[in-house]
Amino acid sequence: MAIVIGSDGARHWTLLTPGEQRWRWFGWLVLAALTVFCWRIMTADTIWAFVADAPTQAADIFGRMLPPRWSYIDQLWGAIWDTINIATLGTLIAIGLATPLAFLAARNTTPSVLFLRPVALFAIVASRSINALIWGLLLVAVLGPGVLAGIFAIALRSIGFIGKLLYEAIEEIDETQVEAIRATGAGQMQVIGYGIWPQILPAFATICVFRWDINIRESTVLGLVGAGGLGLALEGSLNTLAWPQVSLILLIILVTVILSEWITAQVRRMII
Amino acid sequence: MTEAIPAQHLVWKPPRLIERAWLRWVILGAIILYLWLALGSIDVNWTRVSEGLVRAARLFAGFLQPDFTTRWRDIQQGLIESLTMTVCATVFGLVLALPIGLGAARNVAPLWLYGLCRAFIALARAFQEIIVAILFVAMFGFGTFAGFLTLSLSTIGFLSKLIADDIEEIDPAQVEAIRATGGGFWQVMDYAVSPQIGPRFVGLTAYKVDINFRESSVIGIVGAGGIGATLNTALDRYEFDSAAAILLIIIGIVMICEYGSGWIRKAMA
Fold this sequence. Notes:
- Chain B: Belongs to the binding-protein-dependent transport system permease family.
- The complex is a heterodimer of chains A (272) and B (269).
- Chain A has a two-stranded antiparallel ribbon with strand order 1-2.
- Chain A has helices spanning 18-42, 48-65, 77-105, 116-129, 132-143, 147-171, 175-183, 188-222, 230-239, 243-271; strands spanning 3-5, 11-13.
- Chain A is built from ten helices and two strands; from the N terminus they run ββαααααααααα.
- Chain B has ten helices and no strands.
- Chain B has helices at 21-40, 46-64, 72-103, 111-126, 129-140, 144-168, 172-180, 185-216, 227-236, 240-268.
């Protein structure tokens, strides 16, 4: 280590020993070798003629994209409305499911550390490790294409995110307030309502708004797998090679994302 | 004059978030109206859903008995594509993110370079990977190369922004000290800047490996190579047992990546 923390807690700068230096070089060498190896496997099937042709293709595509077909926006209002609904309703469902899950997962509020906590943690991890688009693929296969599949895809994906951040917030609370409420003879729900909830409320609100912002981004592309919203229009326009429509949709996605970011920033400023 | 109030009349109420009553009601009304409109716009095809429940049951059964063997060659191919794509894209992104991150830090770069690099970072971060993948597939053809470029671009956007923000927050005293000894630009970078951002930077890269693998598992849906394409095909054919096997593999690798990157970040912090 180049920086050593001394007995007085201060950080000291030391030179690497030759042994450490050799290990570092060895590490870099392994990384470089791995990269070259992966590169060779990855590009084995690459058709380099296509790659060489890419600038021409890119110029062609961007040429076709301009100008965007502004009149197409009349057909997009429904898709925009659907996209916002998918994000908002999905987030709401996720909040409803993730909150109890977080209380089950937090070490200091779970009724059973041995049984319920691992189950809740597993649910949180499973939800987080699958991308919203994959949830979308699964749900479209189950529920059929449409907004409903999108809402549940967003909800299932968000449970893990909200649950994880929320249970970490619960575990970090100040226990003295909980003690104080408990000392008055309050039941478990009263302890949560008056001792824990007020402490995590700012974190809770920030997490929810932050996730809503992410969900707006994700719901714009969910339609690519058939789950409704702007992505559906994008898929349709791509399939018919209607590039002026594609550029308009991309512009709208950009505007939507910037707007949601702005709203998120405003709400966060209000809360904190 | 205050009189003793009987204790049971003293009920404490938590303070309201919004003090003005009418504003509270207007906001509540707006929320209810929105929910009513939003829920009304979902049209559910119940016959399709009831058919779907059968599929859901089969999918669930698939998770209990995942089929790794039938499509193993496709799965293997997809996995190799995803993993090699992740490694190459992270390394390339990293190599390119370093100079761009340096250029986007206001305390080491001149203004014109700062503006240029920040604009590039904003552009690289504006669109989701999947949309970038669509464009790259259109330009470079189907396959891993488009996916590699997509992930590289997102890695550059992610890492160079964080590097730049980190460099802007470093302790200037050390830079001053090295400069005072007559150190040139590269010596300042080597002895004052990189020791300060190095450890966090390794952690961020490990985190990005984790994200890149997750993304590499979906960009295949739009034709950019990787395990996502295999999964998409399996679901299109309603081969839920193969799909379950692929999902289990993805979850397994994501968890390995997540714990690995968490471990590296802890070791480096």
